[in-house]
Design goal:
Blueprint lengths: L1 H16 L4 H25 L8 H32 L1
Length: 87
């Protein structure tokens, strides 16, 4: 179900940004769907959201923001890891 939510999120992003060409469109759809599918459990864990009712909403948002979301999550995650290692 996360993949479907991510797919629709990435399609909405394409509609908002406007597809420049087929290659970029396919890349955006694939990365948005993959982001939703693989990162939703990570985001649920990092944010300590235990209610699974929010899972598809988070997957949709991750599909919408695609690679930008991956960058934001990794920056936050690695920033916390660096702080923990320095203490």
């Amino acid at each position: 179900m996360q993949s479907v939510a991510g797919l629709f999120g990435s399609l909405l992003f394409l509609g908002k940004e406007g597809a420049k060409n087929i290659k970029q469109s396919l890349f955006a759809i694939i990365t948005g769907t993959a982001s939703a599918n693989y990162l939703t459990p990570v985001v649920m864990e990092l944010t300590k959201i235990e209610n699974t009712k929010y899972e598809n909403g988070i997957a949709f948002i991750l599909g919408f923001i695609g690679l930008k979301g991956v960058e934001a999550i990794s920056k936050r995650f690695f920033k916390e890891k660096i702080k923990d290692a320095s203490n």
